[in-house]
Amino acid sequence: MTLTAWFSVFAVCLLGAMTPGPSLAVIMRNCIQRSRGHALLASWCHAIGIGAYALAAILGLGLLMTQFPQLFLWISYLGAGYLVWLASKALRSGPSSFVVDSEDKVHIPYLHSASEAFAIVFLNPKIALFFTALFSQFIAADMNWLTILMLVSTVTLVDGCWYTLVSLLLSHQGILPWLKRYSHWIDRVTGVVFLLIAARVVLV
């Protein structure tokens, strides 16, 4: 995998994590209503779930590439089309109406926060579809385990580190207003990156 391709994956994962949505709501609720420790644990359980989906997508695509190359080619085209569709939605997005309930802190077992964060990923089939679309643009027949490990580690660490940063900064009450104010610009940058990745199918 080239450095350019790796950076594309890195950028998409970072922008995706930064976009306000259900996952961010879960992390912030843990920090606001429970504790920073709950939020940090939830951040990395969420990241593990993301990494598991990424690994499953890569292995499944790798098997298709070796056993059914023509089918893999069509999946690559469909994946590019899905990224274009996501890009069109992102480019048309407006300011976020994302809100988090800020009730008083309550005592919740750490295991509950961990399972809640993992479930928000595991029970969302759109994440599997997204990773299939994303990695179908970069999988190569000669991809080795070191490259696979690098991709899965990138996805996991970007997700975990971003939500860790959110958890640590939330006490200053600055991160949420910033995300709400600039979320539509994050979406638009993400849309451009999606279009560039999808264009690789046509241009390469």
TrEMBL record:
GO terms for molecular function: amino acid transmembrane transporter activity. It holds the Pfam family LysE. It is found in: Cell membrane. The chain crosses the membrane at residues 41-64, 71-88, 117-138, 145-165, 185-203. It is a multi-pass membrane protein. InterPro entries: LeuE-type. It comes from the Bacteria. GO terms for cellular component: plasma membrane. Keywords: Cell membrane, Membrane, Transmembrane, Transmembrane helix. This is LysE family translocator. It comes from Corallincola holothuriorum.
